[in-house]
From TrEMBL:
UniProt GO molecular function: sulfur carrier activity
UniProt subcellular location: Cytoplasm
Name under which the protein is recorded: Sulfite reductase subunit gamma
Organism per entry: Magnetospirillum moscoviense
UniProt KW keywords: Cytoplasm
Homology family: Belongs to the DsrC/TusE family.
Main location: cytoplasm
Record carries keyword Cytoplasm: yes
């Protein structure tokens, strides 16, 4: 069993698995597509390298570079927001104040 806080964010991002992502996405009524996994993989790699969740602008740039569609596509993928859905599904801790690297 993976420990989450009251809002469903992982207590320890190191506990993240693809199965956790699938369950978290299902709870958010999101069916994960290739673009979702592209965003999640980028976020996980960023966290691994920098020990902090990526700011949304970095994720939008990555999505733009990879697919040609950035900001709008990100909000199509995660309609209730980057922090509420993308961060949760990718196994980030819930950001307290949003200013990362």
């Amino acid at each position: 069993m993976t420990a989450t806080d009251a809002e469903g964010y992982l207590v320890d991002p190191a506990d993240w698995t693809e199965d956790f992502a699938r369950l978290a996405a299902q709870a958010e009524a999101i069916e994960l597509t290739e673009d979702h996994w592209r965003v999640i993989a980028f976020m996980r790699a960023w966290l691994e390298e920098k020990q902090v969740a990526p700011d949304v602008r970095h994720v939008m740039k990555h999505l733009t570079d990879a697919t040609g569609a950035g900001r709008n596509r990100l909000f199509e993928l995660f309609p209730y927001g980057y922090v509420q859905q993308a961060c949760k599904i990718a196994g980030m801790k819930r950001p307290r104040a949003w200013s990362t690297g």
